[in-house]
Amino acid sequence: xxxxxxxxxxxxxxxxxxxxxxxxxxxxxxxxxxxxxxxxxxxxxxxxxxxxxxxxxxxxxxxxxxxxxxxxxxxxxxxxxxxxxxxxxxxxxxxxxxxxxxxxxxxxxxxxxxxxxxxxxxxxxxxxxxxxxxxxxxxxxxxxxxxxxxxxxxxxxxxxxxxxxxxxxxxxxxxxxxxxxxxxxxxxxxxxxxxxxxxxxxxxxxxxxxxxxxxxxxxxxxxxxxxxxxxxxxxxxxxxxxxxxxxxxxxxxxxxxxxxxxxxxxxxxxxxxxxxxxxxxxxxxxxxxxxxxxxxxxxxxxxxxxxxxxxxxxxxxxxxxxxxxxxxxxxxxxxxxxxxxxxxxxxxxxxxxxxxxxxxxxxxxxxxxxxxxxxxxxxxxxxxxxxxxxxxxxxxxxxxxxxxxxxxxxxxxxxxxxxxxxxxxxxxxxxxxxxxxxxxxxxxxxxxxxxxxxxxxxxxxxxxxxxxxxxxxxxxxxxxxxxxxxxxxxxxxxxxxxxxxxxxxxxxxxxxxxxxxxxxxxxxxxxxxxxxxxxxxxxxxxxxxxxxxxxxxxxxxxxxxxxxxxxxxxxxxxxxxxxxx
Length: 581
Hints:
By secondary structure, the protein is an alpha/beta fold. Helix content is about 25%, strand content about 10%. It has a six-stranded parallel sheet with strand order 6-7-10-14-15-16.
């Protein structure tokens, strides 16, 4: 994922779902690991629904299902507090920015334009059956612990329910959560009324302090000063990384690891359990936990898979902090006595442990399990660990599995997820490790070998770092047939893909490689975007193009064209024909 794409996410808001086209590729059934359900519980064609779609598994081994997304939101939703939410239409109806992002064979990011009822439109037209929806924690619970923006949560409910009720067949839903509210990272000060006011990346100290009650302005200034120090520690020039992507913990002292927030009883743990219970597919397991003031899920919206994080090696910061004499310092470690702490892998390992415990608990006795997913790593490559803001997928994951080691046993309902843009755009095909990768190593191939604990020639490795012997999660609990779900990806127009012809060819070739190649039994999802709220002119790798006046369909305050056929790019037709090889 590029820096341009990262910046484009600053406009995302939780209340909706933006769909982005995606594919479910060759893979195993996503179930609790019960082999009896591997065939989906009914007859089906390659893209069509099983005979009983309500009980069918989300992902099926050896089947390359397609999924579509309306990346950020093709005219759907609005920014929190900037419009009126219409529950009947499942969207905000005026003003503001779109909200939410759908991926998982379908990246959806704001639900207003999700075709529903008698007009399934784009989803059926492209044979898409899976959509991924975003639930940004920083938007849903920005005012403080347990204090909700109810309209945002209602918008997500409506969007998920629209997918559940789509006819002639429902969409399967993946819900992904990311970003952290300021009150859990130290990136917000508390006003006299108890409301936390986040610090924006562009805030000046004077402008931020003015928002507060006079009695709280000194404290607000201290928070602003601490955040600026934290940004500089991320190794960024200027204002640095956006505060919503900072790890839980204290910005004022980055040596404080913040792990208490992601362990049982912590703020992040309670948030994930809240989502898992609220949207559980088994009505008997559905409940409101921890936050009694949350708006009720009155329509019984449910999801099939909960992805508990997004790109911890790319979006979240800092990846490292350098400590000298017990204090964090800005320069890189260049003194023999300096200690460099890998914050990113440590936090991610603890999150996976916590999510695994929640997965086992919420699915205990469930007739239909809720699948969990993570760590959703970016396939960004870095030749070393010199950056404290971004970590290459290989080095990050080697550190991660060393921390998980032999003492972590994933639940068979926990799916390993990864993102794969550059495998498509750069046609990366070289086999890898899992030792340190090169720029041409296929990250998908590398991750599969890591999960299955195998060498490049396919043989079983000896015991790995700290006892790592492979992924014991979905689909069977056995590392020998562990699979990866590519929950984000595509082929964007950028310096690696200069022409439209190259786009369509590389997207098709990548799909065919995964469907027919050595990884055909190991990859269960392939993703692209339908449209996107994008700030980069060259990042136009989506199925729908900008409007005639040059505006991106995912942009805010843009009415959706009545006829989207004129916005179809050559990728649209390619996506429809992927099943034909």
